[in-house]
Amino acid sequence: MDETNTHSGSIRTDASGIAVRWIGTIFISIFSICCLLPFLLVLGTSFTSENAIKKFGFNFWPREFSTFAYEIVFENPQLIIGSYVVTILITLVGTALGLFIVAMTGYALQRPDFEYRNKISFFIYFTTLFSGGLVPFYLLITQYLSLKDNYLAVLLPGLLSPFLIIMMKSFVRSIPHAITESAKIDGAGDFTIFIRLILPMTTPALATIGLFIALGYWNEWYNSMLFLSADMKYRPLQLFLYNVITSADYVRNSAASSNVALRDVPLESMKMATAIVATGPVILFYPFVQRYFIKGITVGAVKG
Amino acid sequence: MATAVKSQTAAISTAKPTRNKLKRFWNNKTLLIMCIPAILFFIVFAYLPMPGLYLAFINYNYSDGIFKSDFVGLKNFQFLVQTGDLWRLTFNTVAYNIAFILLGNILQIVVAIFLNELRVKWFKKVSQTLMFLPHFISAVLIGLIAYNVLSYDYGLLNSILESLGYDPLKTYSNPVLWPFIIILTFLWQSTGYGSIVYFAAIMGLDNEIVEAAEIDGANAFQRIRYIILPWLKPTFIILLLFSLGGILKGNFGLFFNLVGANNTALYASTDIIETYVFRSLMTNFNFSMGSAVSLYQSVFGFIVVITANWLVRKTSPENSLF
Predict the structure, then answer these.
(1) Its principal location (chain A) (predicted)?
(2) A142 belongs to a structural domain
């Protein structure tokens, strides 16, 4: 997004220009606030005492301020720390491996002198047109690959996607083929060219694609829910959050080792506190990497 | 040198095609090897499940397995049509997607145009960051946020309704409300991020055209109406046609985390293809019925994509997919 270049009222500012600017400012302000408010609602509720929730309902501002929910979450931090460790490990390993494969494939498929590039591109693209659906996929993972209750069932399916390979191809397209050609004349092999020349030249692309993969793993809950059963102690963060939200028993169990009587467990505020602990760090981190996602969608969406 | 001589003689001899093929294969071997991990990935996770759609034609039971279960032909599809399930799932999935696509794109265009009009830099930056924020959170958290607003006992909506003197809403058992809730949530989550494409398109507009229009006396409304909107039209049409290809694919994360897959009271307005398939797998263990719906979805989705692509090729050949 080029900030210096806008197309509005560059020469003179008449009444209509001022009007549009005001309407725009008001509209964008309202919409931005609407985007923020739900997060404040969760945050506010997480600091509200369970009594106040039962009396007044969820609110932005705690009527009775309480950190009780957080105290219970952190009194027995084993589960949530375990979840963090599992999610961080899956995200790190999956992103590194997936990024390498996506970059390598994207580069090879963008090489004009690669004989089979169209065939392979179509082979990959076809998977977005036709799929076997959930049931055969489920049977494949659980019965044929025996990955039930295995973190690999979450890690492997998230490695790559046709969308990311197409995005990498679009990025590589901006690198002149002459660079590859001259390196070939100097006797470099294709893989060496990729590692030594192309990778260092595509770092912004790699950052973008890597962040897409990482965000996918961090927010992953679907495969976790399908393939990781209740017997697993340490679940990925989103599945942990899902269990806390949907199952009162799970909350009570996870609070069981603290010294709180079961009926005094603050069910509602604990859901919110868990959500804040599970999501907060990412939300604080995201404004710094936002521009990479912007780059990704402008490259990926315009040239399919 | 030796290979060069060899290939020259090969060019003369009759064995030329095969030799050439082998040579080309040899020249491409490293690039081919570089593609193998990805090819393997798609074979395992995308192509291997495809034959599993055979489940749609049998009456699968766990003890007999796929090959010994009874073959029933099109009976499963017949059942889906007769019970009206197939029609309901198709209608819900397609109607929601049409609403998502049309309202989504319109709102994205509005946001992009207004963002472009803003002058104060920090305000632009902060509002963009806030509007992108909902895109970066998981579907699970979205479900929790909806619960915060809609819960019968504690929800914010009912607090507001009660303080205004209205009766509280039993949202989670009232199917009429859900189209609004689901569409609003979708717009909330996707508009900011989706507006980037349109905003980038406006950035690509030649400044001289805008200035020329202003010299000719165009006011701000005319500038938007006669220059920016027509400029965005091709982007709009392309995005529209692209999303048309996915018209039978439902947003499972959104529906599942807002409603769940087993809320019978809300089926009429919230049950889509994905939630049905999920339910038949995880709740009813009716693998065959789930596969039948998946097969139907894939085949019709495929036809729609081919048609959409044909339309793209007619309107702008350079953007067609194949």
Answers:
(1) membrane
(2) yes
C-beta separation of B131 from A35 below 8 A: yes
Which residues of chain A register pLDDT less than 70?
A: 1-13, 254-263, 300-304
ipTM above 0.95, yes or no: no
Residue at B105 is within a domain: yes
Q: Are residues A152 and A297 in the same domain?
A: yes
**Same domain (yes/no): A114, A180:** yes
Question: Is the Cβ pair B139, A221 closer than 8 Å?
Answer: yes
Structural domain boundaries, residue B189:
86-319
* Burial group, residue B4, by CB count within 10 angstroms (0-12, 13-18, 19+): exposed
Mutation target among B76, B141, B203 for the A interface, most CBs of A within 10 A: B141
Burial A222-249 (b: 16+ CB within 10 A, else e): bbbbbbbeeebebbbbbbbbbbbbbeee
Which residue range forms the structural domain that includes residue A29? 2-46
CA atoms within 13 A on the CB side of A112: 9
Count structural domains, chain B: 1
CB pairs under 8 A between A and B: 321
pLDDT tens digits for A258-290? Answer: 666 666 778 888 889 999 998 888 888 888 888
Average pLDDT value for chain B: 87
CB contact under 8 A, A132 and B144: no
For residue B187, give the CATH number of its domain. Answer: 1.10.3720.10
* pLDDT (mean) for B288-312: 90
CB contact under 8 A, B140 and A107: no
Q: Is B155 strand, coil or helix?
A: coil
Domain count, chain A: 2
Among A43, A54, A135, which would you mutate to test the B interface (most chain B Cβ atoms within 10 Å of its Cβ)?
A135
